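Subject: Sanity check before I submit

Could someone independently write out the structure tokens for this chain? I want to compare against mine line by line before I put it in a report. The sequence has 299 residues.
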Amino acid sequence: MWIFPGQGGQKSGMLKDVPQEMIERVKTLTGVELTDDDKAYQDSIQIQLGILLLQLFNIRQLKKIHQQPDAVAGHSLGIFAAGVAADVISEDDAIKIVYVRSTKMQESYPTGYGMGAIVGLTRKEVSALVDQINTEDEPVFTSNQNSELQTVISGSIAGIKKVLDLAKDHSAQKTVLLKVPVPSHSPLMQSVADVLEKELAKVTLHDPNCTYLANYNGHAVRKVDGIKYDMINNLVHPVYWDTMMDVAKEIGIDTSLELQPGHTFTKLVKSKFSDFRTITMDSMNIDDIEFLLEKWKRG
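---
Independent answer below. Compare away.
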């Protein structure tokens, strides 16, 4: 299973190995010049296009050593590179759609909104705290489920901070304001989903060449309609990552390969399934990855 992280792991210099022609392609298709520095990664458009491009390069690296995924699992933004890996959408169309997505997200909530994470409380407990704080003036919603005891919240920064403070009072192990400048995976993003529906109507999509694990319900999808729905609506729904991993286990997956940037989801897999074999592209070179994958295939 190939895992594609979303926003949060971006860092200055992460595109240093990406061929210049790929960077120029982004500029040609979108007009955006990726500058790959700390200042750029305060901007949602630079973050999303930068991470997508890095993952498209990773896919090229893996296909060059004749690797194909049995399943793909993208987290939020990561679903678009996952779609490329599964031959659902072309590189160029993924770049154009992510540009529209990131632009509309930034336009919708330029300041004052974001996401936070709470570790050590159940989703039910977090939802009860959110219900205490959520108002029309300071909206906040229960969002992504990354593991049984790791829940994300989305909304106004003011509302998020109040929920994080409440979570500490209720013995949460950890609370953090995430490096995501928009309230993703909440009802606040419906206007962006409406735009994506129109844009994806112009794009040719195909059935996947492998199992696709959908964000919006965690289920295994093998037809293009379910993937298209995910690409349009995943910003409105929570990402049910914990369910996605349970389904991966159920269908016989026992190996995960996390594309760049970061290794957050490898850690989540290891904490959930001690018998999983894991690889992170952030910490291994492509020759070592090829050696391991071929060794594991031989049994």
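---
OP: Matches mine. For the report I'm noting this point. The longest strand covers residues 140-147.
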